[in-house]
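User: My collaborator sent over this chain with a note saying "see what the structure looks like." That's all I know about it. Can you take a look?
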Amino acid sequence: MAIDKDQKKLRSGFTTGACAAAAAKAAAMVLLGGREISRVEIPFPTGDRHGFNLHSCVLQDGQVTVSIIKDAGDDPDVTNGAEIIAIVEQQETEPGEELIGLAGGPGVGQVTKPGLPVSVGEPAINPVPRIMIRAAVSEAMEETGISDIPLAVTICVTDGELLAEKTLNSRLGILGGLSILGTTGIVRPVSAKAWTDTIDASMKVARAAGLSEVIVSTGRTSEAAVQQSLNLPEEAQVMMGDYLAYALKGAKRHGFSKIYLSGMWAKILKCALGIPQTHVRHGALEVRHAADLLHELGLDRQTADDMAMANTAREIFLRLKDAGRDDLIRAVCVKAREYAMKRSGLEVEVFLVTTENGIVEHV
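Assistant: Without extra context I'll predict from the sequence alone. Here is the result:
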């Protein structure tokens, strides 16, 4: 795909899991090697190696505490700039126990609901970060030549509980802090995978809670309006953002029998037009296409042509309301339901929501 020469290339960053692994290796190096360091390099699941600068390093009472400031690159991540901490100390082990123990400390959430890749009662440190942390600490043992001392690693996040309030963690049953995440160690700016992973995680939690119906919404306003109407368990709520087709197919893949699809006018209109990815970057709403759809649904050609001159989808909605054409608004919702049912293969109900009035149409 051609890139505009004036367009700034977005910078990648590192996951919380990568930062935790780097902090853990550095702490182990200091504990075992007996000397301070300011930078550490660790292996990544991709086979690459990356270096990290230490933010702080403290040796006290047989413990080494190292922190690294997460750099998420140009991704709008709530954990960008977070202080990821690893505390490493010697531990006593029983025969058969792992040489490197791993625990979650302050700021790292605990899993309280089934359906996630980490068992209930465990710290919310995902499988790949666990592998990365242990691999990094093992490397520290090799580099210092001390490989027979059992070590305990505790991962913490400064203000992790406050940062977690800006995420969907509590809905997923991750309480008390952030998740330590990552599958490659690298954060790609505006990562689609981060969204789709969250959709899948939400659906897994809903299924593990025994639910057969799910609310799929484009944002918090539309979600709240439908939840207030349906009063389903919190686990039923799945925020799909702009990933319409992925969420619809995901509901089928995860074994749900029914979808409650909730969104505002522009997103419902895109659904009716069969645009699978509703972000403007991927599925620009051509007002002319919307006008043609309205003509197909019963709007006279002249008025449809006038609609094609509207600046935004919201303007189209307001013009229809002013003209008393609630029948066309409903017809768009029906068309969106037809697309959603075709994509998902499931029963679907569509809720059209506005900021001012909540649910304004339900089909």
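A starting point for your reply to your collaborator: The domain at 13-187 is CATH 3.30.2110.10 (CbiD-like).
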